[in-house]
Each structure stands twice: as C-alpha cells, then as structure tokens.
Amino acid sequence: MENGTEGQVDQDVYVQQELQRLRDSIDNLDAALVHLLAERFKCTQEVGRLKARYQLPPADPEREASQIRRLRTLAEESKLDPVFAERFLNFIIAEVVRHHELIAAAARGN
Questions:
Q1: pLDDT confidence of residue 95
Q2: Where is the Chorismate mutase domain (predicted)?
Q3: 56, 100 Cβ separation under 8 angstroms
Q4: In angstroms, rounded to a whole number, what is the distance separating the alpha carbons of residues 72 and 84?
Q5: Residue 66 C-alpha from the chain's centroid
Q6: 5, 10, 22, 63, 90 from 1: Cα distances, Å
Q7: Distance (Å, rounded) from C-alpha 87 to C-alpha 17?
Q8: Rounded to whole angstroms, what are the CA distances from 58 to 53, 61, 91, 97?
Q9: What are the structural domain ranges in the chain?
Q10: pLDDT of residue 8
Q11: DSSP string, 17-47
Q12: How confident is the model at residue 110 (pLDDT cuts 50, 70, 90)?
C-alpha cells in the first residue's frame, strides 16, 4: 500500500469510529430525553387530574409565559438557540393542555 492510501485508510477508520462514538452518545441522550419526557408527563397528568377535580382551567397562560421566559434564559446560558427552546416548550405545553382538556372532559362525564 502506498503511504497516501494507508493514510486515507487510517483517516477513514478514525472517521467511522468517531461517528459511531458520537452516534452512541446521541442514542443515549435520546433515550434519556424520552425517559425525562415520560416523567414530566406523569407529573402533568397529576396536575390535570387536580385541575379537573377542582374545576380549574386546563391552561395557565401566566405559568406558561413564565416557563417560556425561564427556559429561554436557560437556553441562552447553555448556548442553545432560545427560539428552538421556546418552540420545543410550546409544543410540550400544547400537548399538556390537550391532556388536561381530555382529563377535564372525562371528569365531567363527556
């Protein structure tokens, strides 16, 4: 093998190993995110049941706005795009409110 070809093979092996290492970390982080979201939704389901029991509205715009501000600040501090963080939280909030509405409807017998 020529030196240039041998160097290319070494580089290709290195790149593949690095890709695999990084992808393994991403897979672990994705699993952690799923588990964290599951725990978060367990808590929000309890909030939904409490709200339904005491006939509180499914959404709490003040709390949501406060959480968005807090998450944007955390994102900025963590060097994460705050617009992305806000979109992500808005998606989660919408799903939580939907669950709360379903819980409230079930509590009313609808």
A1: 97
A2: 13-104
A3: no
A4: 9
A5: 18
A6: 6, 12, 30, 66, 56
A7: 34
A8: 11, 10, 15, 6
A9: 4-109
A10: 86
A11: HHHHHHHHHHHHHHHHHHHHHHHHHHHHHHH
A12: confident
- Here the tokens at position 40 are 């978060």
| CA of residue 2 relative to chain centroid, distance | 49
Q: Which two tokens stand for residue 93?
A: 């909030």
pLDDT category of residue 7 using cuts at 50, 70 and 90: confident
CA pair distance 42, 5, nearest whole angstrom: 55
Query: Full-prediction pTM beyond 0.85?
Result: no
Residue 2 tokens read as 């020529």
CATH class of 4-109: mainly alpha
Query: Tokens 């790149």 — which residue?
Result: 15
**Does 4 have pLDDT greater than 70?**
no
Quick: pLDDT tens for 8-47. Answer: 889 999 999 999 999 999 999 999 999 999 999 999 999 9
Q: Which whole-number Å values give the CA distances from 45 to 3, 24, 105, in the listed order?
A: 62, 32, 14
